[in-house]
Amino acid sequence: MIKARVTVTLKNGVLDPQGKAIEGALGAxxxxxxxxxxxxxxxxxxxxxxDKAKAETDLKxxxxxxxxxxxxxxxxxxxx
Length: 80
Hints:
Elements: E1 2-10, H1 17-28, E2 40-47, H2 52-67, E3 73-79
Antiparallel strand pairs: 1-2, 1-3
C-alpha cells in the first residue's frame, strides 16, 4: 500500500477571496503580522501496490483530470 498526499493551491496572481477572509479573521482575533494568506486543498490517498513510479504517474493523471483545475491551481505530490 502506498500513501500519498496531494496539495492543491491557487497559482500566484489568482485572486483568493477565502484566503483574504481568513487573513482578516486572524487579525480580528488578535494575530498580528499575518499577511498573504492563501488557502488550498489537501487530499490524502492510499493506493494499492508498491510501485512508487506508477503511483506518481497515476496521481499526476488524477490531478490533471479531477483533483486540480490546472488553469488556476498548482499541485504537489508527496509519496510516503
